[in-house]
Amino acid sequence: MEGRVMEINESQTEGPRTITITSGKGGVGKTNLAVNLAIGFARLGKRVLLLDADLGIANVTVVLGMIPPPRYNLYHFVIGDKSLKEIVVESPYGIKILPGTIGVSKMANLSHKQRKVLIESLYELNSLVDLIIIDTAAGLSANTLGFALSADEVIIITTPEPTAIAAAYGVIKIISNQNIEGSIKLVINRALNILEGKRVADRIVNIAGQFLSARVERLGYIMEDSLVGQAVQQQKPFVVSYPHSKAAECICHLRNRLARIPETPPRGIAALIKGLLLGEDFEKEWA
Ligand SMILES: Nc1ncnc2c1ncn2[C@@H]1O[C@H](COP(=O)(O)OP(=O)(O)OP(=O)(O)O)[C@@H](O)[C@H]1O
Ligand SMILES: [Mg+2]
Prior knowledge:
The structure is a single chain. This protein is α/β, with parallel strands linked by helices. It has 14 helices and eight strands. The protein has an eight-stranded mixed beta sheet with strand order 3-4-2-5-1-6-7-8, with helices on both faces. It is globular, with a radius of gyration of 18 Å. Mean pLDDT is about 85; it is low at about 1-15. Bound molecules: adenosine-5'-triphosphate (ATP) and magnesium ion. Adenosine-5'-triphosphate binds next to α2, β7 and α11.
């Protein structure tokens, strides 16, 4: 299988736009952003695939209220039982899902070969989707870093909490050190008001520019909104259950901004694999 991976042409640029959502600290809103943004793009008529790459504690299907969870998930792909096409499920609200796994410890640390095969196989889904949104685990596991480095765009989400900001900065540092080709975008979640969101974003963007020479784009903010927690409790995404909530309005702005950004041609499968290889180098350096 590895041989097949290496045959892929580096200049191949066909394929869906890929956006990875990640963070330094856990619990800062990645999955809610991924799910609600995916639904937002589906409402624009895009064919969206949401990949739950939080391979330790996947929770996309939980937020979407898919009960019982899909029968097959990435574990069945990794052990060779199913192809990705066989695992993809149509979820409510018009998006396709590649379900992750919960509590399968060996999934949390895929070998680099397994990650390569997974990414390569995403290529098989090219004709099915226009956009792949990848929800990751927090922090800098080789899995997460691989997905962050391989996407066209990586969105780093943080709350205004100092510990979350410091962890976000750490992620930006690692990603920018790897000469990422895709762009790094920043979302501030749980901002109490626009001023706070702007202040936090400015701080991160300025420090990243000054100390890391990293260009980080401000993508926007999501307001603190108790309806987000309620929607999670009800297992119905807030853009569906509370379409007029502050948080849903913010998602709409973020979606529109992303939709307007002139797209560099998606970098395609070759870039995805290259990113994974960089993730792997990082893993070796720290092993
Ligand atoms: N804008 C918001 N306003 C209020 N509460 C929020 C907001 N965003 C997220 N939350 C709360 O934070 C919780 C965690 O969100 P989410 O599961 O999306 O984070 P995560 O980054 O994916 O977590 P993990 O790192 O565990 O995967 C939500 O269940 C919700 O209660
Ligand atoms: Mg999550």
